[in-house]
Design goal:
Elements lengths: L2 H17 L6 E7 L1 H5 L18 E8 L7 H10 L1 H8 L27 H7 L10 H11 L8 H14 L2 H7 L10 E2 H12 L3 E7 L5 E10 L6 E2 L13 E2 L5
Antiparallel strand pairs: 1-2, 1-5, 3-7, 4-5, 5-6
């Protein structure tokens, strides 16, 4: 095949991939333990509504691909077109991103669209970042980066995340397994994972961070959700836990 024809064929194939690039395979419903967010060297700041409850809070509902990285076509195209062109055409990116993001920058979050959810969002989706402390800015960022790729309207996006959190209360599930906040106790990571699987019926991915003294603590739980955002599924991907040992803390908040 002549080089010019090969480029045309590759371009056609990659454009076909691009047209499907905003499709995704599942959501991550990411919830974080506020004590672990705050008990670090960076610390935290409470939102404009005051200190949140000692409960897992939503970080986001993130569309994700079950498979990422480039196939043989993209590898061949990179030799002909260059990395930047392949990244633009394939939607995967030079770093092989496993998720779509910023799918519609013009679709800003409207306060009117989520007016009936604001009280629930303040309770279940608070911000602990010190950047602004204004919760609506946090929700707007999550909508712009992730929600615009979700195939859901603004109200649906937030309402479905809230409904999933309410249906599977992680704080209650872990407490039922004897895993409660403590400044002294540690828990096997496997026990945390098993408790969540028993309590929800599905496996989840876990993420740890470090407290100010360098101890591992449970930070975020990644629950996998179907493409409609309605129900949990077993996570199709594993992910690094960032835990160097099996024992983790769940610090008091």
């Amino acid at each position: 095949m002549k080089p010019a024809i090969a480029v045309v064929v590759l371009l056609s194939s990659l454009l076909a991939v691009s047209s499907a690039a905003e499709k995704f395979d599942f959501f991550y419903l990411v919830q974080q333990w506020p004590g672990s967010f705050c008990d670090t060297r960076q610390g935290c700041c409470f939102p404009d509504t005051g200190k949140p409850a000692a409960d897992f809070g939503i970080h986001g509902l993130w569309p994700n691909y079950a498979k990422c990285g480039r196939g043989r076509q993209e590898e061949l195209a990179s030799a002909v077109l260059g990395e930047d062109d392949v990244a633009f055409l394939s939607g995967v990116g030079r770093r092989g991103k496993c998720w779509p993001e910023y799918c519609d920058d013009g679709n800003a979050l409207s306060p009117w669209e989520i007016r009936d959810l604001v009280a629930s969002l303040h309770r279940d989706w608070p911000t602990l970042s010190c950047k602004s402390g204004r919760s609506f800015e946090f929700w707007s960022y999550e909508w712009k980066k992730h929600g615009t790729c979700s195939n859901l309207a603004q109200h649906e996006y937030f309402a479905r995340a809230l409904a999933l959190k309410a249906r599977h209360n992680l704080t209650v599930i872990l407490a039922g397994a004897g895993i409660v906040p403590s400044d002294t106790e540690t828990y096997p990571l496997s026990s945390v994972r098993d408790a969540i699987a028993r309590g929800t019926g599905f496996t989840a991915n876990l993420e740890c961070n470090r407290d100010a003294d360098g101890n591992a603590q449970l930070f975020q739980v990644y629950q996998c959700v179907d493409r409609e955002g309605n129900k949990l599924i077993d996570c199709p991907l594993s992910m690094p836990t960032k835990c160097s040992r099996d024992q983790v803390k769940l610090p008091v908040f």
